[in-house]
Each structure stands twice: as structure tokens, then as C-alpha cells.
Amino acid sequence: MRLLVVEDEKKVARFVKKGLEEEGYAVDVAPDGEEGLAMALDGVHDLLILDIHLPRMDGLGILQELRKKKVATPVLLLTVRAAIEDKVLGLDAGADDYLTKPFAFQELLARVRALLRRRAEAEAPVLQVADLTLDPARRLASRGGEKIDLTSKEFALLAYFMRNPGRVLTRTMISEHVWDYDFDTMTNVIDVYVNYLRKKIDAGREPKLIHTVRGAGYVLKAE
Ligand code: CA
Fold first, then answer.
1. What is the distance in A from the centroid of ligand 1 to the CA of 10?
2. What tens digit of pLDDT does each residue of 24-35 get?
3. How confident is the model at residue 82 (pLDDT cuts 50, 70, 90)?
4. What's the CA-to-centroid distance between 54 and ligand 1, angstroms?
5. What is the 29 CA–ligand 1 centroid distance (Å)?
């Protein structure tokens, strides 16, 4: 899961990014409205956290622009005070939820989870490749009926593979979907995680599902 935080207050942005990363999310940060809109239009994020008061373009402006361009990414708005007008304007513009500053990180996290779950339930039924199943809404993975424990990152990586069965995924594609813009693709972190995943889903089982494609990347398939 990859999130975008558009927030000009550096301290808040850092605190939110760090906290969400510790929960296994990939997090990009944009420091002003225009950059935030440009990044949000890429459509690679699963959730946007938009501060309302931003330099260059405010959060509501970003939201209106996104909805006008049919970008339906869920949006959580951050507002300084629980002003009724802000809430009404935001909901009219297509926001999915609100949080009033200052907020406790646990509350932000609960709302993020709820929004992502709602989206996952709406969009992604249980994924299946051979006898491997993954339920994004319940965050469960199993093979041959046997439960597999995965870390948040491993889960995100496996979900990406399972949404693209039979398709060769390059390290760049994987880093773009599962990590974030700051991620250095020259490192071997992706290979390390793919190997963790292999140990958990393929070790001691047939058929092997994760295959290396030399010079290209990886593919998940049942042959
Ligand atoms: Ca602000």
C-alpha cells in the first residue's frame, strides 16, 4: 500500500510518514499543493492524506481537481479546526473522511486502515493463484489451506504479484508499487524480500510459484 501525504508543516509530515512507514506502508510526501496534485494525478497511490491549508493550492482545490479528472483515490482531509463549512465543502468535493488537527497518530492510523479496508473490500475480492490465496480485506494469506504469516511489506509484495499473475514484474515496477519515490532501486532490498516470500510460500511445496526471469525480474505463475 502506497500513501501520499500532502502537508507543508515539516514536523507533521515527518511524524506521519515515519509512523505510517513503521506500519508497513510506503509513504510519499509533497510539501505544497501543486506538487501534491501532480503526484496524486500519477494514480499510483492507494490513499491520499491532504492538509486543507497548503501553499500554492489548498487541499480542497487538489481534491476538486482530482475528482474532475476522475481520479477516485480515497482522500482523508486534515483540517485545523472542526469547522462545519470546511467539512461540508470537503464532503461535497469528494473527501472520504476527516481528521481535525492536532490528532493522535493512532487515530490517523485507524482512519487510514478503515479507508483502505473499505476500498479493498469494494475492489478486491480474495485473490487466488493455484492453491495460494490472499484476502486483502482480512489481511490473510494461505497456501493449500495452511495459513502463512507475512509482514506488512511481504503482504504488500505478494498482493502486487497476485494482482498480476503471469506478468513479468521488473524491480522498478515492484519498487514503484510497493516502496516509494525515495527508494533506491540499486539496492538488493527487493531481491531480499522476494526471497523471504519464496521461503514462506514456496519452500517445501509444489508447484513453485515465484520464478526469476533472468535480466528482467520476477513472475508469479503456477508452472
Ligand atoms: Ca498546512
1. 9
2. 999 999 999 999
3. low
4. 5
5. 13
Distance 59 CA to ligand 1 centre (A): 9
Q: Are residues 109 and 17 in the same domain?
A: yes
Q: What is the CA(78)–ligand 1 centre distance, in A? A: 9
- The pLDDT-based confidence of 131 (bands split at 50, 70, 90) is very high
Expressed in angstroms and rounded, the spacing between residue 33 Cα and the centre of ligand 1 is 10
Q: Report the separation in Å between the CA atom of 86 and the middle of ligand 1, taken as the mean of its atom positions.
A: 14
Question: Ligand 1 centre and the CA of 177: distance in Å?
Answer: 27
Residues 5-14: tens digit of each pLDDT: 999 999 999 9
The predicted model gives 73-98 an average pLDDT of 81
Domain that holds residue 18: 2-122
- Cα gap 207→223, rounded to integer Å: 6
Bond from prior residue into 102 cis (ω within 30 degrees of 0):
yes
pTM across the whole model:
0.60
CA torsion 97-103-106-109 (nearest 10°) is 30
Q: Do 62 and 90 reside in the same domain of the chain?
A: yes
CA of 77 to the centre of ligand 1 (A): 11
Residues in a beta bridge with 26: 2
Average of pLDDT values for 68-72? 88
Residue of 89 and 48 predicted with greater confidence = 48
Strand order in the sheet with 2-6: 26-30, 2-6, 47-51, 75-79, 97-100
Are 11 and 103 part of one and the same domain? yes
Please report, for the domain that includes residue 88, its CATH number: 3.40.50.2300
